[in-house]
Design a protein that fits this description.
CATH superfamily: CheA-289, Domain 4
Strand order of the largest sheet: 8-1-2-10-9
Structural class: mainly beta
Strand content: 35-45%
Number of domains: 1
Length: 181
């Protein structure tokens, strides 16, 4: 498009020029980037490994202060916590998954998760932030990454972040305690 002698363009000419420039500069989006098969999750540390929980299961994340132990419960159940008047069971997921133990520090967080009315807190060593992972980019479960039972793993990313299957975890019979004394 050639400008007129005063280098001014009509509105239609300007729109056409801008559209042509935009078409030349646009970056094509890969099909996997627009896929709905994305896990939006929260990345956190357990022992020396990174994990992700799908944010669809997460209610909130709070700092760990203390818990009240409960007698006659499994070893992985640390006790209960009070979250704004609501009593929630607190799980030490490292014990549940047979991971190396570490001491509880001021960096520890409680990730409160919920699925089908089952709500509990999961103790994490630290929370790193949010993370997007494409399902297609997940590697199959690898035996070389920790001792976790494969029932609770959706997959592992190339940079060795383990994506937990929270639905399988929260529906596991070990988690649901219905004993009435």
């Amino acid at each position: 498009m050639e400008p007129n002698e005063n280098y001014s363009f009509t509105i239609e000419q300007r729109k056409k020029i801008l559209k042509e420039r935009a078409d030349r500069l646009k970056i094509p989006i890969k099909k996997e980037e627009i896929s709905h098969e994305i896990i939006e999750g929260v990345e956190f540390k357990l022992a020396s490994e990174s994990y992700v929980i799908d944010s669809a299961f997460i209610v909130e994340i709070i700092s760990f202060k203390n818990s009240t132990p409960l007698p006659c419960t499994p070893e992985f159940l640390l006790g209960i916590i009070n979250v704004r008047g609501k009593i929630i069971s607190l799980i030490d997921i490292k014990r549940f998954l047979n991971l190396p133990q570490s001491e509880i520090t001021n960096l520890c967080k409680v990730i409160i998760v919920n699925h089908n009315g089952i709500e509990l807190g999961i103790l994490a060593d630290e929370v790193n932030g949010s993370r997007q992972i494409f399902h297609k980019q997940l590697l199959s479960k690898m035996a070389t990454v920790s001792n976790i039972q494969s029932d609770f793993i959706k997959g592992i990313t190339k940079d060795r972040i383990i994506v937990l299957d929270m639905k399988a975890f929260l529906e596991n019979e070990k988690i649901i305690i219905n004993e009435i004394a």
